[in-house]
Amino acid sequence: MFYYFLISNKGKITDVCPDAGKSSWPELVGINGEVAAKIIVRENPKVRAGIVKEGMMVTMDFRCDRVRVWVDKYGIVKDIPQIG
């Protein structure tokens, strides 16, 4: 729902999560997912980073304290990790 708000209203992550800190990590696309998760938590200790393998089902709720690290079958980050 909040993600839809961000896309449809061109809102900013700070509109929903005012104290989010760093909220996306485009520089991590293409690296190992485990390494990426550690970098995310180091750069923003307010979030938890979880590895999600390609094809896994996840909940659609938006959380300011969660970053999903989407990886391919080789464990490489395939999408930009971001708060949500």
TrEMBL record:
Any GO BP: response to wounding
Pfam family, one: potato_inhibit
GO MF annotations in UniProt: serine-type endopeptidase inhibitor activity
The keyword Membrane is annotated on this UniProt entry: no
PROSITE patterns cross-referenced by the UniProt entry: POTATO_INHIBITOR (PS00285)
InterPro entries associated with the record: Prot_inh_pot1, Prot_inh_pot1_sf
UniProt key word Aminoacyl-tRNA synthetase: no
Keywords: Protease inhibitor, Serine protease inhibitor
Similarity comment text for this entry: Belongs to the protease inhibitor I13 (potato type I serine protease inhibitor) family.
Record-given protein name: Uncharacterized protein
Protein's organism: Populus trichocarpa (Western balsam poplar)
